[in-house]
Design a protein that fits this description.
- It is a single chain.
- By secondary structure, the chain is α/β, with parallel strands linked by helices.
- The chain has 16 helices and 19 strands.
- The strands form 4 sheets. Strands 1-2-5-3-6-17-7-16 form an 8-stranded mixed beta sheet, sandwiched between helices.
């Protein structure tokens, strides 16, 4: 690596390809290499040679993998506490969907050549043949945005005298999973605001375009969607498969519930005339430890639930309604099938039950005659630390079901990590209006200088770390989430106070990308390397 980082197309392209070659899949060792690569890129700049303390790696507290964020300051020559944040993530999802090219997918130049031999959509094929797109993991989501931000920072570092505000570049880990990287950054920023009176004017993210609308041009979004991760834990009745009607398979209930929940419009939130994507199942998991000719007694599912204004109480209420309906449909089917059997036994008279995780916790505490906090801490301390937080949470639910002596047919509902609030621009404060002014300048510049169309949307539809810059929920929301999330305070705890205290307006100005998380993830190279740097600079200059 001999080239000094700058916002020239050649420098951005080279840096991007080198960063993509680092396999920084979430929860892997490669995730530790990416911030160090960016650190070295910036460390070589004269500005950071002269101000080494302005560039540092930030350890994520309590992280089992020892991951780090990268922070870099470029400060205005005239002392000010006013600061604009540039922020993005360097972790990526895995490449299993790329099949035999899963390793090559980390090398954009190679992968773009090799994918010609793969079966891909006509749209992807057209983009490939145009020569304007580069394919590969992280090209769009979101190493390109992160590299362009770093390049813009490098240019301002060379001309710091032109800045009237400070710039803080933050590259974070773990965006694709539990957001531990941005939570660490939020704690740092809230301390700066509280202890040293730093004033954060805006946070600019550069995630790729993710929209249900036109994807052939650039987008700017002035807010971001939120996400709950609700779960359902379904308990049936155990039985030998040969004595099917002496038990009740949890799978029978689960399949009914999955049909009712998957893609359900009841969970689709709407805002300003736009309806956002519905609920989808992220994991379907049975709790049988091994093969046996036994009906499945316990099944867990967890979901992605995008929201703008829906409260956690509303989501739990919808889950409980679906659970009652699924239990009723499953039991009706079970009884019809039982009636068709030649059996001398009496049909079971089970009373279906639905409860929140918080109620399960109280039942377990009452039966064990021990504080629930002790039960949870003791169990989780014996659970493999390397297990995903969602897995640890569901194992804890399973343990508490045993402690409470809970039998089916029962469904327990609650939440798992991660949780991301929605955060959008109301245009009510001076800071919010200033951001909207800057967005107008960005759109105008794109048209006049580059003849590019840039649309403005209110809500970025992909989950982003912008969520963390201004929690605007209620104390009831906090209570509902905290008492219904397994492992709260041990494995996971959302920094509500710091997020609400920061209250920073946000904007996403990113590259044109398509098919994030797919085998055809790709980036429009010209827009990313030649247009986006100017748009980011214009947004910064607007302050």
């Amino acid at each position: 690596m001999t080239q000094i980082l700058s916002s020239t197309p050649e420098s951005i392209r080279t840096t991007l390809f080198n960063l993509c070659r680092i396999k920084s899949v979430t929860d892997s060792q490669g995730e530790r290499e990416a911030p160090r690569f960016l650190y070295e890129c910036l460390r070589r700049l004269p500005y950071f040679q002269n101000h080494p303390s302005y560039l540092f790696l930030q350890l994520i507290e309590g992280d089992r993998l020892g991951r780090e964020n990268l922070c870099a300051w470029v400060r205005a020559e005239q002392t000010t506490k006013k600061t604009v944040i540039l922020m993005g993530h360097f972790d990526v999802v895995d490449t299993d969907v790329c099949g035999s090219l899963r390793d090559e997918a980390f090398d954009p130049q190679l992968y773009t050549r090799l994918i010609r031999g793969e079966k891909i959509t006509e749209e992807a094929k057209d983009d490939l043949e145009s020569g304007e797109w580069v394919f590969g993991r992280g090209t769009a989501d979101m190493k390109s945005g992160l590299v362009v931000q770093a390049a813009v920072l490098a240019d301002f570092a060379e001309h710091a005298e032109t800045l009237n505000v400070n710039l803080l570049y933050v590259a974070v880990a773990d965006e694709e999973n539990n957001a531990s990287g941005i939570h660490q950054a939020v704690r740092y920023l809230s301390r700066l605001k509280h202890d040293e009176d730093w004033e954060f004017l805006c946070c600019i993210d550069s995630e790729p375009s993710i929209t249900q609308e036109r994807k052939d041009h650039g987008w700017v979004h002035t807010g971001t969607i939120g996400m709950y991760t609700p779960f359902t834990f379904i308990i049936g009745r155990e039985a030998h498969a040969g004595e099917y009607f002496e038990g009740l398979p949890a799978s029978l209930i689960a399949f009914q519930m999955g049909t009712m929940l998957e893609g359900s419009e009841r969970f689709s939130d709407a805002y300003e005339g736009v309806t956002y994507p519905p609920l989808t199942c992220l994991k379907f998991h049975d709790l049988k430890a091994s093969y046996s000719v036994t009906v499945i007694e316990r099944v867990a599912m967890y979901f992605n639930c995008l929201f703008i204004t829906k409260t956690p109480d509303e989501v739990l209420g919808l889950l409980k309604e679906a659970a009652f309906d699924a239990l009723q449909v499953a039991l009706d089917r079970y009884r019809r099938n039982w009636s068709g059997q030649k059996s001398h036994s009496k049909m079971p008279d089970w009373a279906p039950r639905v409860m929140e995780y918080g109620e399960l916790l109280m039942l377990a505490e009452e039966r064990a005659k021990r504080p629930a906090s002790e039960l949870c801490a003791e169990f989780l301390s014996s659970t493999p630390a390397a297990a995903e937080l969602q897995e640890r949470g569901l194992r804890l639910v399973n343990y508490l079901v045993d402690i409470a002596g809970l039998k089916g047919p029962t469904v327990v509902v609650g939440f798992l990590p991660p949780y991301c609030p929605s955060h959008f621009n109301h245009g009510q404060t001076d800071k919010e209006r200033k951001v909207l002014e800057g967005v107008g300048r960005v759109v105008e510049l794109a048209h006049l200088k580059f003849q590019e169309t840039v649309s403005v949307g209110e809500i970025y539809e992909g989950i982003s770390d912008l969520s963390e810059f201004g929690f605007n929920g209620t104390n009831r929301d906090i209570e509902c989430l905290s008492k219904n999330l397994p492992g709260w305070g041990i494995d996971f705890e959302y920094p509500f106070d710091q997020s609400k205290y920061l209250d920073v307006p946000v904007v996403n100005i990113g590259p044109i990308g398509k098919d994030a998380h797919k085998n055809t993830e790709r980036l429009h190279l010209h827009y990313a390397t030649r247009v986006l740097p100017s748009l980011l600079k214009e947004m910064i200059r607007s302050f």
